[in-house]
Every structure is written in C-alpha cells, then in structure tokens.
Write a structure and sequence with these properties.
single chain; 323 residues; alpha+beta; 13-stranded mixed sheet; elongated
C-alpha cells in the first residue's frame, strides 16, 4: 500500500486497487475479522464438498468478496443464492463493508461486479430488517423496489397474547378445490413485487414453491422435512383471512395472510389453535402478509422488508461504475 500526505503533513495510507472476486475457503479468517460469525464465514467460503452437497439438494450459492490489493485485506462481502426452482431469480445476503471503508462505493461494486461474475442472474432480491432505514435507502439507491406486505416471525407463546382470541378461530385442512382461493391469498400476502421476481406462476402449488423466503444461511442449512399440510384459517363468516402451511408434527408453520385482515387477533387465534394441536410454545411461526400498522407499536414480531429488482439490467448506472 502506498502512502500520501495528510492535511498536517503526516503520511496516511492510500487505498490500493479493489478486486472483486469469488470467495475461497482461505478467506474465512478475514471474513471473521470483517464481523461475520464463524458459521456465516464458512457459508460464504464453503469447501468443495459442501458446495457439492448443496448442488445435490438443488441449491447454488456463491460468495463474493472485495479484496484490496496488494495488501490482500478483505473489505466487503456478499452472497448470492439461487432460488430452488427459477435459475434466473437469486437472493443475496451477508452484504457487509468494513466500517472504516463505508461510503466509498464498495457495497455498490460488490453487487454490480457480482452480477457480472454471475451473468445468469436476471432478477435479484433481499430482505432488510424492519426499521433499518439506512439499508433500505442503500438498496433503493441501487434501483431496488420495496414491497408493501411485510414478512416476519414470532414464537407461538408471544403471538398467543398479542390480541383478543375470542371468538376462537378455526382451521380446516384444504383440498384441491381450494387452489384458486389459496393462490389469491398468497398473492395478497406476498405482494406484486414478489410475483414480478417469480413471473409465470399460474397455480398455487407452483407459486408456493417459487423460491426461498428465508435468509441464505437458513436455505443452505435446510434439509428435507415432513409432508406439508395446508389449512384454511376462518375467523368469522367471511371468506378465509389466511392459510397456514405446517410440516411434520407441527415442526414448522408459515402463515400467509391478507394484509388488510391480519391483526393481533388473527395471529393470536392461529397461535392458540396450533398450541391446542400440540405445537411447542417456543415454535417460531413464519408470517407473510403483515401490514405496517401491526408493526407501528413495539411487539414480539421480528419483521423484514422485501427489496427486489425484477430486472438487474436496470441497476442504477452509478452502481456500475468502479468507485
């Protein structure tokens, strides 16, 4: 690294050349120094045997790092994960830049040059923690859109007390005849941005399997679980407000709700019904279709905002130029 004179005449380090490349197993220590826990560093720089295991499971993931040469310091990282069924739609996460080097365009270059390294990516999306306006703004500056319905998760124990539970809700196992109703609920719960990321889904079963909705680490660590069962959620005499997908002996549960009808009472009723069916109280239920009003006050739900780019060729021009 060369040196330059500072304002007071002192020598200051001059940044070297930035190289964007695929991560390697030897990068794990540097990724740890960047702030990633060991498990994340291993996922970002997997061994060949791990990549083969992922491929057998239908998962493809590539870690990208920003390396300053000739010093070899890792200044940033990102991971791209291919959705299971649509090879053109990828998710990204673990987007991080070393704090002293932020606001230098490194994060933008990780995305832009990562897309060049992976030209098969046609559509891209990510989840941002609810309330993280800095990250949302960073995504929007690159050209990402923000979704309306919010995703989240919370334990059944917490949800069972989030609102009035009377009168109780009802769960009815669905049949093939419920497909159109379920698909419409799914569309409302996920929002139009999701369907622009996964175009061409014209049946409920295809739409529901469009891709991963969780963080890359959860997707990469996923294993085949029990058979999925789907239940319609009835809370009054009107059409279903939501539907529920559970796996195994209620080892996993995901609720897809109409955002206009998803309130604390609905969540409490569903949670209590699951508890009555024997679900563990600490089971965390995934939630899709949360309205913003439900999250305005502090509560037990860990919420995330979907950020999507349905056409990566529209990446903001300033993100394409090396900084």
């Amino acid at each position: 690294m060369t040196r330059r004179a500072g304002r007071e005449g002192a020598d200051l380090p001059t940044p070297g050349r930035l190289r964007i490349r695929f991560s390697l197993p030897r990068d794990r220590a540097a990724l740890g120094a960047l702030g990633h826990p060991p498990a994340i560093a291993a996922v970002l720089s997997p061994a060949l045997s791990t990549r083969v295991a992922w491929a057998i499971g239908g998962v493809e993931a590539r870690g990208i790092v920003a390396e300053e040469t000739p010093a070899g310091a890792i200044l940033g990282s990102v991971q791209f994960v291919r959705a299971r069924r649509d090879t053109g739609t990828w998710m990204f996460g673990h987007w991080r830049v070393a704090p002293p080097r932020r606001r230098e365009g490194i994060g933008r270059r990780l995305i832009a040059e990562g897309l060049r390294l992976l030209p098969r990516i046609r559509r891209l999306y990510s989840y941002v923690d609810w309330g993280n306006e800095i990250s949302i703004l960073a995504h929007r500056r690159l050209g990402f859109e923000v979704s309306g319905p919010i995703a989240g998760r919370a334990s059944l124990r917490a949800l069972s007390t989030i609102g009035p539970a009377a009168p109780p809700g009802r769960l009815r196992e669905t049949s093939g005849e419920d497909g159109p109703v379920l698909l419409e609920l799914y569309r409302r719960a996920m929002g139009p941005l999701w369907f622009s990321l996964f175009p061409g889904d014209d049946s409920f079963s295809e739409a529901l399997g469009a891709g991963s909705e969780g963080p890359p680490l959860a997707l990469l660590g996923a294993v085949r679980r029990g058979r999925a069962r789907t239940f319609s959620v009835q809370v009054d005499d009107r059409p279903s407000a939501a539907f529920l997908v559970v796996r195994g002996a209620i080892e996993e549960a995901t609720l897809y709700a109409d955002p206009g009808r998803c309130d604390g009472s609905l969540l409490a009723k569903v949670a209590l019904r699951l508890l009555a069916l024997g679900a563990p109280r600490d089971l965390e239920m995934e939630l899709r279709g949360l309205g913003r009003a439900l999250l305005e006050a502090p509560g037990p739900i860990a919420a995330r905002v979907l950020m999507g780019m349905p056409d990566v060729s529209l990446l903001a021009p300033e993100a394409r130029s090396p900084s």
